[in-house]
Amino acid sequence: MRRFISAPNRENGSAVLSVSDEGPGMNESERLHAFERFYRGDARGEIPGTGLGLSIAKRAVERAGGKIAIRSSPGRGTTVTIHLPKT
């Protein structure tokens, strides 16, 4: 699976970083649960992981005063965007 990381940029005084992949994507239900600890959208176990990555990222971003969002659709991959405030 290919992954893409955009160069950090500034938007309205915030640092913005986006990470995208060309994976299977997520449906709406999966997106709603994606930040929950141990949540795994792939019940078949075909995609490795523990279901902790996004929950850890969300906690770290929020502790820094930022926001994290997911944009995804089945068959089109996923983009996670992080906005961190200027310090």
Shape designation: globular
Q: Radius of gyration in whole Å, from Cα?
A: 13 Å
Oligomer: single chain
Averaged pLDDT: 85
Major sheet summary line: 5 strands, antiparallel
Q: Return the structural class.
A: alpha+beta
Distance between the termini: 34 Å
Strand content: 25-35%
Relative helix content:
10-25%
Number of strands: 5
Compressed to H and E, one letter per element, the order equals EEEHHEE
Q: Segments where pLDDT lies below 50 for 5+ residues? A: none
Please report the number of helical segments. 2
Helices and strands, with pairings:
Elements: E1 3-5, E2 9-11, E3 14-21, H1 28-33, H2 53-63, E4 67-72, E5 78-85
Structure notes:
With 87 residues, the protein is an alpha+beta fold. The protein contains two helices and five strands, in the order E-E-E-H-H-E-E. It has helices at residues 28-33, 53-63, and strands at residues 3-5, 9-11, 14-21, 67-72, 78-85. Strands 1, 2, 3, 4 and 5 form a five-stranded antiparallel beta sheet that branches. A hairpin with a 2-residue loop joins strand 2 and strand 3. The longest helix has 11 residues, at 53-63. The protein is globular and about 40 Å long. The relative contact order is 0.27.
